[in-house]
Amino acid sequence: MRSFLPAVAEQLFKDIQKIYEEKSQIPDDLLIALKFVFGSCALQALDLVDKHSVTCLSSPSGRKVYQVTGGSGRLYTCFTSCHYCPCPAFAYAVLRRNDGLLCKHLLGVYLSQAMGLTQQESVSDKHITTVMAGGSAAS
Amino acid sequence: MSSLKRKKFSRDIRCVVFPDEVGHNSANSAAGLTAPSTGSSAARAWERCGESFIDLPKVKDGHSSGRTLSAVRKLDPASFSVHDSSGHHDDDPVDIAWTSSENEGSGNESPKQSLAKAVPPKRQERKRKIQRPAGRASHALPAGEAPSISSHHDDEDPLDIAWTSSSESERSDTDQDRSLARAMAPGPPERRRKTLRPTAAAECSAKPPTDEEDLPIIDSDSDLNGSPDQLKRDSAGHISECESPRHAVDGGLKAPISPGPSGDPDASDWATREGGGYSAYLNRPEGHGQANKRSLGDWVRAAQAMHMHMHTPRKQADAQSKTPEDSGKKNRKLTSGGFAERLTRLQGRQRSSFSLWRHLSIAEDSAATAVQPGVLVLEVLDVREECSMQLVHCQQRRPPGWETTTPPAAAATPTAARLLVLFDRKTSAQLRPVPGDIIHVYPPWQRLDVEDESTTVILNTHFSQKVYSDVKTTNPQAQPRPWPPLARCVPHSLSNTFGLHGADAVKRKDATTEQVANGEGVVGGPGDMDWAPGHSLLEVIEGLGHPGSVGPEVRVVVQRVYSCYVPERPTASAARPRAPPPPAAPPPRRGRSRLCALVQDGRGIFSVVQLQPLPWDRELQQYTQKWQGRACTLRNVKVVQRVTRERYGRAFHLIDSVWPPTIPFQGRGTSAAPCFYYLLSGQGDSVEALEGSALSALYLPPKEMPLRDVLRSAGGVRCHSFTATVVYASILGDAVDQAEVWLSLTDPSLQEEGEGQAEGGGPCGRTVPLCISTSCVLNSSVAAVIRSPTAAILSFRDVVMENGALLCTEQSVVETPQPDRASRSELTGSEPPTPTRATLGCGLPRPVRLDPLGADTTAHSLCTLTGVIVGVEEDTACSWPACSACGSDRLQATGVGESPAFRCRACDCEVQQPKLRLQLEVTLASAVSDGIVKVKLHQNTIQSILPPAALQASEFPGYEVEHVLGKALGPIPVVVRVISRTPTLCIAVEEISL
Q1: Would you say residue A107 lies in a domain?
Q2: pLDDT tens, residue by residue, B645-662
Q3: What ipTM was assigned to the predicted interfaces of this complex?
Q4: Facing residue for B335 by CB, picked from A4, A12, A50
Q5: Which residues of A96-122 are buried (b: 16+ CB within 10 A; e: fewer)?
Q6: Interchain pair B339, A14: CB under 8 A
Q7: Does pLDDT of B378 surpass 80?
Q8: CA of B392: which chain A residue's CA is closest?
Q9: pTM exceeds 0.80
């Protein structure tokens, strides 16, 4: 059976993107809808957006990867073309229990994208290789 | 079963419950048994406790019931000693706390008093014994060894409790468990609490106590403040004791407990004082305890076992979902004004409304009530689960009245809409939707149209209720129906992202990355550099949530640039807008002037930005040419105040003069004038003009008008701009820049032949008075013009005209005419209609025409006066010599004899022939009917009306009043000083020379 919830989530992101482009703000009802669909992740992800915790690393080779600074300061690497986050919440709630679509980091990435609030950072090919290979992102 | 009650006194107090006292004293159960009136039952219980300790091994099972016993112990700090001979401590402290909630005892006693009362051994004592728990704990403690607590108390004295162990030989078998140390806090009595914590091993060995062997568990919060040595003993365990509120202040258990020689942290002072019970000699002098050492390890276990079963009743978690939100999340520090903070607020509101809705929905049978508008009536068609949410395909039902009459299946109409309704975990757990159910979803639900799926999804369905009655009528056998296994969808593929990686999003990211990198905010970022109506000052400032710095750039149009005086500490006043207001005295004009700008954003919101100080006169003109009328970016400003029209109406004159705008704003009409603006504080770089930008379409330039048009303009209080000739200036103070200045202005439009009283509109004078308030900044060149006695031209911008009077406020700008007229005409957007200096020079008659004094003349206006002298103010008439060179009257008489000589102190020269200065005020019978006109005459006029002979003399001989009376005056130019119209018209004027 095909899942339908991703379509709902995608539509929400589209609406947020559209409205934020127009008004530079997210109306209350969309925030409430985010909370309804994504649960407690929404608040945490919005906090990540507020804190500009999502950075898009791009390298001269054209590779891109998202880095989300978690609440503890740890960096989580999320891929642009893959619905995955290495955080424990994703492993448990999404992968193991299928309780949610996203973790807060992934949701933060999507929201930052929708609102255009992702920080851009150009890094070397070597650095992005290290990041994508799961190495330390410290630069 | 034992239980532990937590009493809300001044400190935590837990009571011991006895099984059989419930019925006796239920009314007092909360207060404890040991009040004097109920002391007997308590004593019985204690006795039984003691007996049970003796018979402990025989008891296998038990439980307690809910009586409470509390013992107040007044313990001598010196009576207990702790000896840790072995140095062995258990890691887990024993957690037994003594609690007293006794009612007896004199709560007002000081610690010393209570101690003195407790010490005498001769007094009558009643013992209370504590049973030890049964079970495995009893095996570890042989009969006769169980510790008991004897509470001796007089009716008025606090209890003292003696712990005793009869034999020391039995202590070694439970080395691990019966660790007990006493922390003897030598601190103030209020803090004297000791805790006895169960060890882990004791916990394992604990079993429920028997019915008759209830152990009064004593528990309290520990508050250790002992010495390091005492703390060391505490590592094994400590007894905690909470005095009752009455005795809390009266000193408590102070005696340290010494571990036994076996190495266990024992209470070595436990000795039998009476019978088979254990009593602790808490009140005896130090040293006695050594003879009757007794391990308390078993007692600790027993008490710990009790502790397991006697614990504070936990608050029952409300099984019902109270809120749709997770309220138990850890507190995170959210960014102020951010999305998360907003969502938190929204959640709070939603929780409140949900609680209210739930309360109301429980209160009334919703199935019986009619469906209200806005309520979705849904028939469940299909249920599936996805990511802990239930996706329910529903058929929306519309016909009213179907709930009670029509079966759901028959009620389905082809036109009914099909919806996909999402229920979160809690809601779906309550609803348990199955196909065929009727569910009401109350507002505020949300509707989301998924474009790709052409499906309508209903979100935010917290306010949902299943209508059971329909289910029953439809399918009576299905109640309760089994919970069908829900179809669970395949998890979302990890290879599918949500498709926001388009170039559009990347482009937007690039646009805002710079501002993020600069540490600026996110709201209302500049984005593209075209004028975008989305950049609203209001949203940015209101989005702050609190007064603070506005980080993001906001595009504004600078409508006006002016300068105003600022207090000595502008930053302090800006940072503390609630600082006490300055004294009522008008602010002195002295001080630094500060650059100000009236800006307007794309939504029409105004703000006044106070910028850096202006040390030089010409800087204002430079900034005006640079900014005024152009689109600028506003950044790094602080919100000082939100100024409302209700409170500061006068501050809105300038805004009203640039309202309504020439082009309508998006999102708001132009009918209502702004009712507020923001007062912002910024620095030199807060306003920056966009390069290459021409005058904005939003800019409403100050329109220069002839004075005649200004005076005839109607429409309430407005700001006007004009250029005029200053005919006369009167400074009501010492200096121009410290006092109110009244100017008499005129221009060719008022001086034209035939103009004046009446042509077209209302009356117009040949001159018009203008007041420059002390808040208006006058630069040095303007001040020089005002001080100059000759007529000069000044340009006035945004002068407030109120009730026919012109007023220069702090937003007005007074300047000397700029030689560069080209730039000025560009700035104002129109060719100035007023004449230039050249045309003014020949346009104005010499002398300027004035209006004759009339009954409607106003103060500070110039007019001509004609009349006959009918009276002389003899009291004020006088004469005095003045320096012939400088005119100063500061002369010092130096000569003697008939030819007096003077020395002028002002110019320091000899004055041989001083000028004669005269002062004369006369009353005229003039054209003003029924009025008195008093004129302070000019020197020349006085000389003209006095006899020439009198003026020739070296010393003024005086004159007869009759020589003056009846003489005709005028027309002379005068300035009206005072006009009093009651009881009769009285006008005081002063003759001037133009």
Answers
A1: yes
A2: 888 887 888 888 887 777
A3: 0.93
A4: A50
A5: eebebbbbbbbbbbbbbbbbbbbbbbe
A6: no
A7: yes
A8: A4
A9: no
